[in-house]
């Protein structure tokens, strides 16, 4: 029997339990324990229609309505949808339903850059609703009917959200973090909706008892996901291959993201490239100006960015192409490579593009990512063929 179970994160591992002034305390979640948590508030019902820039497909409408029904039935939903399927729009209907009941709504994502982008999209979709943005460095205002926040901020909201939408649950730093998972569980007052393009089998299986898995393997514009191409190169030839591919893509008038496995490698790449090809820049988690650089990239100020996996999710730019340098690095697992590939072809008016893996060897992760994309493309193709016959 455990000597102490933490009331905050439910930890009972004795390695993280200590005693001070005769009382037990948990060192595992010590930095996320606050005496003053945000007080739950009921709002007047608001009946509104979200502003959506494009009509939902039949598949999207069906899933959106199913999520709302599950919510009303106090069931959780997992939306398993490919990158570029329009996942955010799939939860607008359930948000509308929750607003009509005067409830507290949360939308959480592990990474700050994506949280900011989702906040802006929700402000556009629900302009009359009080929406609050909460992340590290932006905690002056903690209340609102819709709160968009990083998962690190969930500890402030105990049994708070009637509806909590969790996007990119498999992203760093949430994935595999015991405390963050506990903070997520304890922040839910009602039901939750999880969205992911690469959910684990464990996550899918967890919905068998009280929930439903809803799949959407077609992109909203009905074009297939780009299948990555592999370029095998060795030593200095890797850099030559990168230079030639980058120059070719830029020559087509495209914007390019170059992914490197580590910060140091990204810095080295950019140091080399900036002398050869102008109008580029570098972003990573340690650069304080990364958010501004990304904004400028979207505006066309930069033609390419060298980045770490900090941009593997949540970025949508017309005509974007992707190069993964050292794609055989062990930090690039198959789900990460799928997410990176999903940055390409996300816009309806430019739904195609190229994804290039540059590596010394073809790894299991690279082959797994390619096979996963091909399998989903084949599934969608067969589905459309069956539909056209009926």
Topology summary:
Layout: E1 17-20, E2 23-26, H1 58-72, E3 76-81, H2 87-90, H3 92-99, E4 105-109, H4 112-125, E5 131-134, E6 146-150, E7 161-167, H5 178-187, E8 188-196, H6 201-205, E9 211-216, E10 229-232, H7 236-251, E11 255-259, H8 263-273, E12 280-283, H9 290-298, E13 304-307, E14 320-325, H10 334-341, E15 355-359, H11 364-389
In short:
The protein is built from 11 helices and 15 strands.
Task: Describe what this molecule looks like in 3D.
The chain contains 11 helices and 15 strands. Helix 1 runs parallel beside helix 3 and helix 10 packs across helix 11 (364-389). Strand 1 (17-20) and strand 2 (23-26) form a beta hairpin. It is globular, with a radius of gyration of 22 Å. 32% of the residues lie in helices and 20% in strands. It has 390 residues and is of the alpha/beta class. The protein has a 7-stranded parallel beta sheet with strand order 5-6-4-7-8-3-9. A 6-stranded parallel beta sheet has the order 10-15-14-11-13-12, sandwiched between helices. It has a two-stranded antiparallel ribbon with strand order 1-2. The protein folds into 3 domains: 1-33, no CATH class; 38-216, Rossmann fold; 229-383, 3-Layer(aba) Sandwich (Rossmann fold), CATH 3.40.50.300.
Q: State the distance separating the first and last CA atoms.
A: 60 Å
Instruction: Give the amount of beta strand, in percent.
Output: 15-25%
Major β-sheet, in short? 7 strands, parallel
**Biggest sheet, spatial arrangement of strands:** 5-6-4-7-8-3-9
At CATH level 2, the architecture of the largest domain is 3-Layer(aba) Sandwich
């Amino acid at each position: 029997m455990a000597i102490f179970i933490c009331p905050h994160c439910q930890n009972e591992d004795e390695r993280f339990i200590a005693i001070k002034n005769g009382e037990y305390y948990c060192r595992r979640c010590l930095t996320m324990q606050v005496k003053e948590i945000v007080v739950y508030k009921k709002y007047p019902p608001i009946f509104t229609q979200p502003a959506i820039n494009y009509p939902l497909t039949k598949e999207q409408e069906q899933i959106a309505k199913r999520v709302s029904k599950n919510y009303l039935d106090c069931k959780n939903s997992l939306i398993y949808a490919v990158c570029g399927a329009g996942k955010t729009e799939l939860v607008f209907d359930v948000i509308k339903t929750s607003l009509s009941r005067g409830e507290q709504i949360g939308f959480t994502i592990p990474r700050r850059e994506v949280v900011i982008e989702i906040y802006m999209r929700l402000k556009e979709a629900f302009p009359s609703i009080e929406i609050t943005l909460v992340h590290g460095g932006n905690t002056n205002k903690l209340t609102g009917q819709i709160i968009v926040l990083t998962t690190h901020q969930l500890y402030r909201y105990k049994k708070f959200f009637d509806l909590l939408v969790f996007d990119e649950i498999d992203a760093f730093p949430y994935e595999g973090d015991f405390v963050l998972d506990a903070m997520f569980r304890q922040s839910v007052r009602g039901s939750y909706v999880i969205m992911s393009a690469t959910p684990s089998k464990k996550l899918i299986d967890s919905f068998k008892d009280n929930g439903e898995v809803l799949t959407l393997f077609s992109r909203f514009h009905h074009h297939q996901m780009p299948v990555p191409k592999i370029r095998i190169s060795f030593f200095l030839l890797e850099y030559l291959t990168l230079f030639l591919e980058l120059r070719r893509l830029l020559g087509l008038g495209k914007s390019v993201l170059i992914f490197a496995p580590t910060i140091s490698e990204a810095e080295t790449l950019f140091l080399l490239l900036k002398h050869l090809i102008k109008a580029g820049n570098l972003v990573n988690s340690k650069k304080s100006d990364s958010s501004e650089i990304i904004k400028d990239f979207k505006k066309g100020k930069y033609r390419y960015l060298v980045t770490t996996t900090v941009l593997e999710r949540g970025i949508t730019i017309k005509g974007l192409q992707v190069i993964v340098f050292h794609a055989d690095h062990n930090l690039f697992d198959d789900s990460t490579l799928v997410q990176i590939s999903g940055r390409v072809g996300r816009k309806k008016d430019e739904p195609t593009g190229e994804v290039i893996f540059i590596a010394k060897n073809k790894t299991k992760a690279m082959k797994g990512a390619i096979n996963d994309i091909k399998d989903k493309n084949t599934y969608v193709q067969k589905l459309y063929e069956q539909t056209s016959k009926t």
